[in-house]
């Protein structure tokens, strides 16, 4: 007998934006996600199990803390099953979500490397929840290389709290900002058309981050390098914000990468290491 997939109850608008759900997603706590989902939809464990392709006993164990979701395959089954926005738990968009590059007739088709999760046209187009999910979800490593990066502490009131918590949990955090007194920052400010404004933004960021100087697990340093990209690494995920002459980083594209041996991820990770080797304490 062929089983029929029972439809789930329609979730209420704004379910994924509710504070308790946002927190659960940032922690990738699927047990909490299931509980909140059931509370607001009335879905049964059996229904959730059916749409996610899991045994009902596994759903019960996950909800009661007896089983943890750790594999990419299961995260993807769950996201697809309950229509959970994939980016909120750091997953790549499904194939076909991002249009394939178009080529001229008669020219060979261009292959998009599979490690490119998505390309955002500007940094402002990167969902705020994706930044939160990546920072909060890191378990082994966080690296940040920017000139000012003021949008992070200025746009997320608990940014330093999240970093202090990650450092206290044993996650090494390396954070490199441009030296506001360096020629490289002055030149970049002139190129963006804001002059000393860029150095001022860097000093504001340093003020925001001052409490992290003595925080366990966090190294806050200054660099005097010419940056061609801002780099944000979270374990095996990375956001690379390109720098374009005459335009601020906020107006330039961002690549979301996932680690694959010998690919773009490693290329940018090596660039971070080269700059980090030149840094000095903030």
Automatic annotation (TrEMBL):
Protein known as: Helix-turn-helix domain-containing protein
Gene Ontology terms for molecular function: DNA binding
Record domain HTH cro/C1-type: where: 44-89
SUPFAM superfamilies linked to this entry: lambda repressor-like DNA-binding domains
Database matches in CDD domains: HTH_XRE
InterPro entries: Cro/C1-type_HTH, Lambda_DNA-bd_dom_sf
UniProt cross-references to Pfam families, sorted A to Z: HTH_31
Record-annotated membrane-spanning stretches: none
Protein source organism: Parafrankia irregularis
Residues covered by region (Disordered): 92-111
